[in-house]
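can u do me a favor
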């Protein structure tokens, strides 16, 4: 049985399309992408300049991840990246500096954002949602959520159904325990108190009342 390919390359009338899997880790993706650009498909990775479109599926790249991909493509001077696109339906909520994204994060998938995120959908067991700011899940949080990944200990994690396998805020990690099995009739949020992660009801989140008004639509 052949191993699943995480990088597929297709020719189009406009150039080349790179289809990048969203079911593997980013490091695995980078390794395979580098291998193919250095050692494979030489018949069309050399020669005249070709335009490249990169599709990342349900993987939202951070600016750092995009830059790593662009650096790898510099191996081939004839390949010019025209666009890097994902399939997530999102728009910026500029008033509150929150990005709104809808979908489902499945096992093995990692979504990472460089701003606070309002995720409309479920984070399944094995799914990962990371943000430099706050995380709001209008749905069930049953995977891993890490808010404040840049060290912001004031970040929070809120969910309509709070049943995570692990919560992280800044450098603190909370492993599964009984108190994370949320009440399905109550929306809850996690925050840092002292040197540990605590849980409270969403209505106590008064300092973010503008976001709370929108979050409550999932109640």
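np, heres the sequence
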């Amino acid at each position: 049985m052949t191993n699943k390919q995480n990088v597929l390359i297709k020719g189009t009338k406009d150039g080349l399309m790179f289809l990048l899997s969203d079911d593997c880790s980013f490091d695995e993706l980078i390794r395979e992408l580098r291998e193919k650009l250095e050692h494979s498909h030489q018949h069309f990775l050399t020669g005249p300049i070709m335009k490249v479109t990169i599709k990342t599926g349900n993987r939202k790249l951070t600016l750092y991840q995009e830059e790593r991909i662009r650096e790898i493509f510099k191996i081939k001077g004839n390949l010019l990246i025209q666009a890097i696109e994902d399939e997530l339906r999102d728009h910026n909520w500029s008033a509150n500096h929150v990005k709104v994204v809808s979908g489902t994060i499945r096992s093995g998938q990692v979504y990472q954002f460089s701003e606070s995120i309002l995720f409309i959908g479920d984070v399944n067991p094995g799914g990962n949602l990371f943000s430099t700011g706050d995380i709001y899940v209008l749905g069930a949080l049953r995977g891993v959520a890490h808010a404040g990944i840049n060290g912001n200990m004031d970040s929070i994690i809120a969910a309509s159904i709070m049943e995570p396998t692990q919560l992280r805020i800044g450098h603190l990690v909370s492993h599964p325990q009984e108190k994370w099995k949320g009440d399905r009739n109550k929306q809850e949020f996690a925050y840092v108190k002292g040197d540990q992660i605590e849980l409270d009801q969403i209505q106590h989140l008064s300092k973010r009342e503008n976001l709370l008004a929108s979050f409550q639509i999932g109640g």
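The chain has two domains: 7-85, 89-218. hope that helps!!
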